Amino acid sequence: MNNLTQRKQEQSLILLVDDLPTNLHVLVSALKMDFRLKTATSGASALKLLENKLELPKLVILDVKMPGMSGIEVLSRMRNDPMLCDIPVILVSADTSEKNELDGLNLGADDYLVKPISANTLIVRVQKLIQRRHALIASNDWNRSVLDRSFNGFLLLDVQGNFLEVNETYCQMTGYTSKEIMSLHVSDVFSGYLIDEDTINFQRIIKKGDDRFESRHSRKDGSTFQVEVNIQYRNVGGGCFVVFIQDITDRKNYEAELKSRSQQLQSVFDLSPDGLVLTDENGRVVLVNPALCSMTGLKADEWLLNDSSVIWQKLAHLTAVPEQILPGTEQNFRLELERPRKRVLTCQILNVTDNIANGSGNDAKEDAGTIHLIYLRDITRDDEVDQMKSEFITTAAHELRTPLTSVLGYSELLMKDMIPQALREGAFELVIGKTKLLINIINEM
Questions:
Q1: Which residue, among 118, 115, 73, 108, has the nearest Cα to 93 in the 3D structure?
Q2: What is 396-413 written as a DSSP string?
Q3: Is the pTM of this model over 0.90?
Q4: What is the pLDDT of residues 127-142, one digit of tens each?
Q5: Which residue among 54, 125, 190, 426 is the one 20 to 30 A from 441 at the CA level?
Q6: Separation of CA 69 from chain center
Q7: β-strands 190-191, 199-200: how paired?
């Protein structure tokens, strides 16, 4: 390959479109030294050349007025084709009317030149547009590298739901190659919000401009995973959707496990025979269980969202001696309720979290920022049992002490030989009788 051929291949390709060969000759003469050129003499033939996506031009110079398909129509079709919409276009016309210029610029033309065209002006305009195009490509390449390194999947979809672009992260998520994904439709991988009974719900997103939602995605192996979708509509190139996909499977599994544990704890809380009150870091009651309501005769909504001081006020109102409750002075104490019926309770205050204020070194009240669990246990029956035990022991001690006194006394007299021989047999019988009595008492206990 000689140097001239190599230099030509390195030059940017420009497509020149004009129905008049003389006009094409003028353009070719001005640009042939610095650029590779292709020519077309109609709008249809220009679009045919643009179908070759392997060699797209860096710029198109397009005559406005041509028989059949005008330059304006060619420009419109280019801007509605995602593969062609970014190619810079210079419109050329002998018409000096402002309307044609505005029509072209409104459709996305990058420049507008009026015939006859100065060669120097044309070269300068072309070079600036191609330089801008190279800068844009470099920027896109950098953005592409950033997207490929992103932890989130990236998609570009057209308004029909066809894939235009994906990043490597998305390929890894789904198990597809980039080439395989490009042959799919969005309905092949999405389910839920976007696809509803095989109907694409893109219209609601177009109206809103963007949206965020959760959905399920299908992998190549047929399995599915949960994702969070951030989607934005862009009104360029006929419209497209920029989509970022975050795999939230681990988060959802954690949330499900947390919910399950919360339900288990709630069940324990609800089924506990002991009264339980939970306060938040602001000291407000956020949770009470049925046992507490049964103990106090108060409904749950009479407790909830009240300040913790109200807890002690309500409990004090149920006691015979309100001053027995001095909240904050003890962590464990005893309550004797008179209402709704007589009960004896033990109260324990537990710090569920560490004291936030003290941890930060702030001079704040001791319970600021602390979540408390107040534990109330009904020990009425335990007290009754303890009383019965005490009474039983007292009675048993009395019943045992009487015969033991006789056994001990006569045994000492017999040992010291202080009882006359005639009375010794009676003394032994008395000791044996009292011993049998003790055995009977013990057997009956």
A1: 115
A2: HHHHHHHHHHHHHHHHHH
A3: no
A4: 888 888 776 665 566 5
A5: 426
A6: 53
A7: unpaired
